[in-house]
Specification:
- The protein has twelve helices and three strands.
- It is globular, with a radius of gyration of 20 Å.
- The chain starts with a helix and ends with a helix.
- The protein is mainly alpha-helical.
- A three-stranded antiparallel sheet has the order 1-2-3, with helices on one face.
- 69% of the residues lie in helices and 4% in strands.
């Protein structure tokens, strides 16, 4: 990870070029142009960008906080989120923005800086809702999915119904009705999991995510390196925020944003880079062991 800090400029440029290439060469899936197909294979470059974002943000702010440093990270964040908005992939944009807040706050500790960034984000949301009417429709349907079960509430009402029908122990593998709903194996996989394997197993999996976050937090408190501490906290926060967006979106606690459930949803690209996030936390643990 120390070598990564020296390459942050190239990693950042590579991330932005990948997102740009996705806009040009990507294929549209469920309304978002965020996949590139190469023969029989398909990859999602934005998954790589998540790891690049942690490395660039952490290494940029690792040294003494300056306006120049935070400015570089702000420009990189704005470029990534802007390109994701053009795809549009607002779920991934939200994940990167939440990670930015974690990294910036851990390094600066400035509530004022975070408040200014949040104010800018609120303004950006209003712009998005103006130019992307379907996003506004999704927000308007939030909390009212049962009023339009065959329209804006089609997916979430099915998730809630089939999730409840699975009970505590589920109907068994392959015995679900949830499989017929679009994106059942990706964005809505929590409902499929609970229907087939039961609510109990679904809660156990969520508890595993929470325990992993606590594991990463223990690394943060013991590490003497700012770089390693921020990297571990950013990786854990990114994983936890993505999990929350998926589960809360599918169950209508939050608007549906279309992000996957880590390690559970279908997708090889996601698995590879989720393992990279785990590796970041493990490398921090290894660094602590050498300190001791």
């Amino acid at each position: 990870m120390d070598r990564v800090a020296k390459c942050r400029l190239w990693i950042g440029l590579g991330a932005i070029l990948l997102l740009g290439a996705t806009l040009v060469l990507g294929t549209n899936t469920y309304g978002s142009t965020n996949w590139i197909r190469i023969g029989p294979l398909s990859v999602q470059p934005s998954e790589f960008v998540k790891i690049a974002f942690i490395f660039v943000g952490t290494s940029t702010l690792d040294r003494l906080q300056t306006k120049k440093n935070i400015g570089e990270f702000l420009i990189f964040t704005g470029a990534c989120i802007g390109l994701l908005a053009l795809m549009p992939d607002f779920g991934m944009a939200l994940i990167l923005f939440a990670t930015f807040l974690i990294i910036a706050f851990m390094r600066s500790g400035s509530v004022r800086t975070i408040a200014l960034v949040l104010a800018g984000a609120v303004l950006a949301v209003f712009v998005v809702l103006t130019v992307k009417p379907y996003v506004l429709d999704r927000f308007m349907g939030w909390g009212h999915v049962w009023e339009d079960v065959n329209g804006v509430g089609y997916q979430q009402t099915r998730v809630l119904t089939y999730l409840a029908s699975g009970g505590l122990f589920g109907l068994g593998l392959g015995s679900s009705y949830m499989g017929s709903v679009p994106a059942a194996d990706s964005d809505l996989v929590f409902g499929l999991l609970c229907e087939e394997q039961g609510l109990l197993l679904g809660l156990v999996i969520l508890l595993a995510f929470v325990l992993w976050v606590f594991y990463a937090r223990s690394d943060v408190t013991r590490s003497r390196s700012t770089f390693f501490s921020i990297a571990a906290c950013a990786a854990a926060g990114m994983l936890m925020f993505q999990t929350a967006l998926n589960v809360y979106g599918a169950t209508d606690v939050l608007p549906l944003t279309g992000v996957t459930l880590p390690f559970i949803s279908y997708g090889g690209t996601s698995i590879v880079f989720l393992m990279s996030e785990m590796a970041i936390a493990l490398s921090v643990a290894r660094q602590i062991k050498f300190q001791e």
